[in-house]
Amino acid sequence: MTSFSNSFSQKPLRVGIDVRLWSESGVGRYTKNLVLNLAKIDSKNDYFLFSLQKNISEIQAKIPNSKFKIIKPDISWHSLDEQLKFPKILNKYNLDLTHFPYFSIPIYYKKPFVATIHDLIIDHYPTGKASTLPLPIYKIKQIGYKKVLRRAISDAKAIITVSNATKEEIIGHYKATSEKIIVTYEGVEDFAQSSKLESADLVKEYNLQPKNFLLYVGNAYPHKNLDRLIQAFKKMNKKDFYLVLVGKEDFFYKKLKASNSNKNIVFLGEVSDIDLSYLYKNAKALVAPSLMEGFGLPVLEAMQNKCPVIVSDIPVFHEICQNTATYFNPLEMDDIKEKLQKVCFGDLSNDNKKVEKGFEIASEFSWEKMAKETLKVYESCVSIR
């Protein structure tokens, strides 16, 4: 049985980290916070960061640590070059271990590696509705994605994942052993305080007064279930109450926006951390209607900002929120509407005990803790070669 608890290599390790997704949301935020916190806690090992050209100046500014060297293969993820050229580049650096913080690994890379699997959404939503590609091309890519995912799970020295819910999914779908899969929870950061001026700008432009809006933060992919959320919100029919959707303005977000012209539904797109802090602190509640998630960082961020949370009744949200959230059936529009009304206007509208308990839970999650646990995985993997 493999143990990942207290094995340490005596000499400095040469660890490669694939940071090509640095500037993206989701996996990018995970990768960025992992590297930034490794730079704080680890002065022993040598790191090689494999980046896209566009990210290099930001990485250099944030990590002056000489133990972190930046390599620029400038190879896109999910590309042919990733499979054919990237292994050759990695092999040049005599790495003890490489960490791929996303399942998109080069399948011809034969050196030891660790992979982070954030979720198995690709297995649950294998339809063209989850892609902007033509259906035949999407199906071909889907086959490729699954082959890469199987290789990552079968050949990794260890699999890191971000929740026990996802760990159980991996075990169930791919027959991986429990000992091989390590859960390292994501962290939550202290948000910058909103200035009065910036808060006033949001209020003036969108009429977002404190507690007169419901907040959603995240992308608009089909599994996020935003169509049902919007329909449930419309059925509430509250004149001076708003649904605010924050997220990357990609194909799915723009499509959703184009089909919903209701003045009480506000599409903010991406916002600064300062504005996001204002939104969390002043929302009546955050709502997360997802059909499936690997973790659910916005929920944790809301809890940290003492914002009530209304979430889907799915395993990962129970794991994170415990008894501090209000849960609904994400497939039942009437249940979504009922729970929104209860929290926003009914007998749960002043449930401060849940909010305070949520704040306590959120304080237990930190990126530095995640980085320390990940470093233990690196050192254990090298010690058992």
The SSE order reads: EHEHEHHEEHHEHEHEHEHEHEHEHEHHH
- Rg from alpha-carbon coordinates: 22 Å
**Gross morphology:** globular
CATH class of the largest domain: Alpha Beta
Could you tell me the number of beta strands? Answer: 13
Number of helices: 16
What is the fold-level CATH name, i.e. the topology of the largest domain? Rossmann fold
Q: Please, could you describe this protein's structure?
A:
With 385 residues, this protein is of the alpha/beta class. It folds into 2 domains: 14-187 and 366-383, Glycogen Phosphorylase B (Rossmann fold), CATH 3.40.50.2000; 196-362, Glycogen Phosphorylase B (Rossmann fold, 3-Layer(aba) Sandwich), CATH 3.40.50. 43% of the residues lie in helices and 15% in strands. It has 16 helices and 13 strands. The protein has helices at residues 27-41, 56-62, 80-84, 86-91, 121-124, 135-155, 164-174, 196-206, 226-236, 251-258, 273-282, 297-304, 315-321, 333-345, 352-362, 367-383; strands at 14-18, 46-50, 68-71, 97-100, 113-117, 158-161, 181-183, 213-217, 242-246, 265-269, 285-288, 309-312, 326-328. The strands form 2 sheets. It has a 7-stranded parallel sheet, sandwiched between helices. Residues 5-9 have low confidence and may be disordered.
Question: What's the short story on this structure?
Answer:
Helices cover 43% and strands 15% of the residues. With 385 residues, the protein is α/β, with parallel strands linked by helices. The strands form two sheets. Strands 3-2-1-4-5-6-7 form a seven-stranded parallel β-sheet, sandwiched between helices. It has a six-stranded parallel β-sheet with strand order 10-9-8-11-12-13, with helices on both faces.
